[in-house]
């Protein structure tokens, strides 16, 4: 008599796989004819829907922070009647840790439809102000890019040695966009255009041009030459 294969339904591995499949179905993923995961489509609405559950979890975790800070920081969020598109004058402000500006950056980032990460490695956080009314236009968050990213390297035409030598001069825009009502006035495009300004180059240079690599201990002499990201 040949023993039939035994399927273990209640192992930890099996439970994790079932939970993962169920979660992916809830998010809207389907399967192709070859069994690969597939999105319903590549629209922004679909991407937002995929992050909806995570965003709701994030908002629940941040509920006490919002309740504590909103009354103190709400004055910096513009009402539509306070914005004159013809008078908008953007101004950049570098954000330092443990300041009210840092808390404002955190609070404003909760308006993003895709949850915002904290970034890692070298980081620059900036508030974009409207100098005409002292209201917040949007946010810029720059951080070290992912080192191993084949699609990027092939698009740029980098070899492994190119990447090692040049990635030190690149930052990834992990937060980039405007908040309402500026987001309804092409504010996201405005914020994205500011990423290439001389002010940000100077901020980067003052903070990182003399820094040494954590592993190599070499002074890199970094000069900001590239930014990657998408306006929100």
Question: How does this model look, in words?
Answer:
The structure is a single chain. The strands form 2 sheets. The chain has a 5-stranded mixed sheet, sandwiched between helices. The chain is α+β, with helices and mostly antiparallel strands. Helix 4 crosses helix 5 (100-109). It has helices at 12-27, 44-50, 52-61, 63-73, 100-109, 150-156, 160-166, 187-194, 198-208; strands spanning 30-31, 37-38, 90-94, 123-130, 135-143, 170-178, 226-228. It is globular and about 60 Å long. Strand 1 and strand 2 (37-38) form a beta hairpin. It has 9 helices and 7 strands, in the order αββαααβαββααβααβ.
Briefly say what this structure is.
The chain has 232 residues and is α+β, with helices and mostly antiparallel strands. The chain contains 9 helices and 7 strands.
Cα-to-Cα separation, first versus last residue: 64 Å
The helix count comes to: 9
Beta-strand fraction estimate: 15-25%
- Sheet with the most strands, sense and barrel status: 5 strands, mixed
Number of strands: 7
Question: How are the strands of the biggest sheet laid out side by side?
Answer: 3-4-5-6-7
Radius of gyration: 22 Å
The ordered string of helix (H) and strand (E) elements is HEEHHHEHEEHHEHHE
Low-confidence stretches: none
Please state the overall shape, judged from the principal axes of the Cα atoms. Answer: globular
Number of domains: 1
Bin the helical content.
25-40%
What structural class results from the helix and strand content? alpha+beta
Mean pLDDT: 85
